């Protein structure tokens, strides 16, 4: 009988602990939902929106600006410590290798502390013009970046200003070289 009472008390304590942990998880999910809601459902400019004006210096010393964006320019934003960035980076690099026009038509912005972004810059540099900048940098602000990674395709509309042509680039399907 004492064994049965001990087992029932143990199960009761275990259920109470599970209930407390579940309530904690629910509270955290509500906080995350509010944070995502604050993004207004957008991680960057939307399709058809005009890219803001910017000028920045790439890590190789070249100047990049809005006027240098051409049709079908691939633009990616990454940040260190972002698990989704680590997952998407190899796909982005492979996709960028297949972009017609090569490195000149790929822009990557790495956002964060320069000591932590060195690895990302090194991996992106062979396939893209890379800008390393802090939060609210010129390139990120021009694209209204609110989440990482953000991968966009830009085209130039009739007025000559670049617009976002695709805000959800499918990195699984490499671009054709004939494009």
TrEMBL record:
List residues traversing the bilayer: none
Which GO molecular function annotations are given, in alphabetical order? antioxidant activity; oxidoreductase activity
Q: Which InterPro entries match?
A: AhpC/TSA, Thioredoxin-like_sf, Thioredoxin_CS, Thioredoxin_domain
Q: Which PROSITE patterns match?
A: THIOREDOXIN_1, THIOREDOXIN_2
Domain of life, per the record?
Bacteria
Q: Which residues form the Thioredoxin domain?
A: 45-176
Descriptive protein name: Thioredoxin domain-containing protein
Give the organism, scientific name. Answer: Streptomyces formicae
């Amino acid at each position: 009988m004492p064994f049965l009472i001990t087992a029932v008390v143990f199960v009761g304590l275990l259920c109470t602990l599970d209930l407390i942990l579940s309530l904690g998880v629910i509270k955290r999910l509500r906080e995350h939902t509010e944070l995502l809601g604050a993004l207004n459902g957008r991680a960057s400019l939307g399709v058809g929106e005009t890219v803001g004006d910017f000028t920045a210096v790439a890590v190789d010393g070249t100047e990049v600006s809005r006027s240098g964006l051409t049709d079908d320019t691939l633009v990616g934003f990454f940040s260190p410590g972002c698990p989704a960035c680590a997952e998407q980076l190899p796909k982005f690099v492979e996709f960028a290798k297949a972009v017609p026009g090569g490195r000149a038509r790929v822009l990557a912005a790495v956002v964060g502390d320069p000591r932590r972004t060195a690895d990302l810059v090194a991996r992106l540099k062979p396939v893209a013009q890379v800008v390393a900048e802090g939060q609210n940098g010129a390139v990120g602000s021009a694209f209204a970046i609110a989440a990482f990674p953000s991968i966009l395709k830009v085209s130039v509309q009739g007025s000559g200003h670049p617009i976002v042509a695709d805000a959800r680039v499918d990195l699984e399907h490499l671009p054709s070289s004939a494009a």
